[in-house]
Amino acid sequence: MPLDDIEIRSLEKIDEIFAASALFDAVWRGGGSGMPTNLLRALAQSGNYVVGVFSGGRMVGASAAFFAAPAARSMHSHITGVLPEYQSLGLGRRLKQHQREWAFARDVGHITWTFDPLVARNAHFNLRVLGTRATEYLVNHYGAMDDGVNRGDQTDRLLVTWSLAAPPVPTPPDDRVVASVAIPTDIAAIRAENPADAAAWRLRVREGFLARLADGLVVGGFDDERGYLFVRP
To answer: Is the pTM of this model over 0.85?
Structure first.
């Protein structure tokens, strides 16, 4: 699929706001867990980050982030979605780079966001590709959600911080790794085929994280084979 015509830009027209909200709903397969149009409009109007990704004039992705406390010089990236047929084509990285440049231009030094720690591709992208730092494990952070991705599961999330002016956090060498927490290669397939196994993975990873954090360890990186790598701070 050719991506040489990709355009990423702020959404200012109301029909584009509606299109972005519908796109989030399509990516998360309903349930109202995306972003309502009035909230997207309010975020955009008040100067926050609300953008669409266009290919051939069609919106194929969107992202929304909002500023944190002024003294923190930070913003929180709340939601980013790309249509299924455009996923795994590098658009996520292009969106993050656009977000980084947008933030830099507004004196923002850090961007935070959360992701499901069971999703291996997101862990790889956030910790290995972007080199973010995992700062907090959040148990059932959003409570019950009724969209097609999260329905029936607890919404544990890993909070990461991207320091925009710092070099990417490298994967720690083996001699620094003191523990790891494995995750499945494809949790989405497990959820579809055996929800009980998926629920067991959720509890296993949660218990592993909380135990290692209680021991004073921190997440130092991610390895596709071993999972999350823990080091001493």
So the answer is: yes
Instruction: For residue 90, count CB atoms less than 10 angstroms from its CB and return exposed for 0-12, middle for 13-18, buried for 19 or more.
Output: exposed
Whether 141 and 158 have beta carbons less than 8 Å apart is answered as no
* Six token digits for residue 93: 């990285």
Residue at token pair 């979605």: 81
The answer to whether 71 touches 107, Cβ cutoff 8 Å, is: no
Please, what is the average pLDDT of the chain? 92
Give the whole-angstrom CA distance, residue 85 versus residue 53. Answer: 13
3-state SS, residue 14: helix
Region 202-208: mean pLDDT is: 97
Per DSSP, 127 falls in state: I
* Averaged pLDDT for residues 30-54: 89
- Give the neighbor-by-neighbor strand order of the sheet with 74-82: 6-10, 49-55, 58-67, 74-82, 110-115, 157-163, 133-138
